Please model this.
Amino acid sequence: MSKKRILIVDDEPDLCDILRFNLEAAGYEVMTAHSADEAISSLGNGQDCGGPSGYAPPDLLLLDVMMPGISGFELAHRLKADARAKLIPIIFLTALDSEDDLLQGFQLGADDYIAKPFSVREVLARVRAVLARTAQEADTTPVAIVQEADASAIAISIDAVAKTIAIDGRAMPFTPTEFNLLKMLCDHPGRVFSREELISLVWPSDVIVTTRTVDVNMARIRKKLGRHAQRIVSRLGFGYCYLDQETR
Model:
């Protein structure tokens, strides 16, 4: 099996070197770029990120947000608009950790979001998880479901036995954690669950989870819900709830 290729884009050379050393030790092939311009150059050019003939694009981008010139958010926006680069998973590395920043990253197509400062072990774990999840999603064929005459009647359908979720009649891949979180909220519409409650109800007791992990999973769920993302509401200072009607 060929090594997975990772491109690190960060304007801190020392951080790039540390991540490169540890990722290579974990069995990955690693490239680095210290600016968005360098990253675009290494991927090909602004219009064709597939690069020259025979070039293999990276399997994952570790992308800093706050860089001089083109920011990580802007670079992600450009890559997601490119037909050949839009499927490359992106993990943002950033000191920005507000919920608005988190949601902006996921709206741009991020697959995960790691707040600085972070441990190398955390980065390795997130990289493994994203690569495994995207490989699983690539093997998942969406299954069309016959829609009712009133399309608005179909929104979020959860099959608790088959452990599947359909959005507007179309199957969507959810991780077990995402599935359990969404089902917990949908089973109790209008009830606000604190982050601590969700951790105790969804995650195994022997797994160490922070409240930020809940936020990351909720942002991924909202991304997958598409036009129904507003049904998952964050109550400032309290937690999350599900609304059975769209918010305006």
In short: Confidence is low (pLDDT under 50) at residues 45-55, 140-153.
